[in-house]
Specification:
single chain, mainly alpha, Non-ribosomal Peptide Synthetase Peptidyl Carrier Protein, Chain A, 4 helices, 58% helix, globular
């Protein structure tokens, strides 16, 4: 797993999506089930991933829970990259 991608995503989520940027956040923090990212934030995160890493996020990925943690997202990016 690319630690660079993890760091980029942690920074993005912390600076753009979290109400409290001081909240602990790492690659395994549940983003959706912990309520850190809402549905609009998830769309913004998916758009960021597509723009930054060139990996297409499909509608099925939202339903399948493939975007629950940063580790999940990086795994998806690497599988499609």
């Amino acid at each position: 797993m690319s630690e660079d991608r993890v760091a980029i995503l942690v920074d993005y989520v912390r600076s753009q999506l979290l109400v409290d940027p001081q909240r602990p956040l790492d690659a395994d923090t549940p983003l959706i089930s912990e309520g850190l990212v809402d549905s609009m934030g998830l769309v913004m995160l998916a758009a960021f991933v597509e723009d930054r890493f060139g990996a297409r996020i499909e509608d099925a990925d939202f339903r399948a829970g493939s975007l629950e943690s940063i580790r999940d997202i990086v795994g998806l990016v690497e599988a499609r990259g």
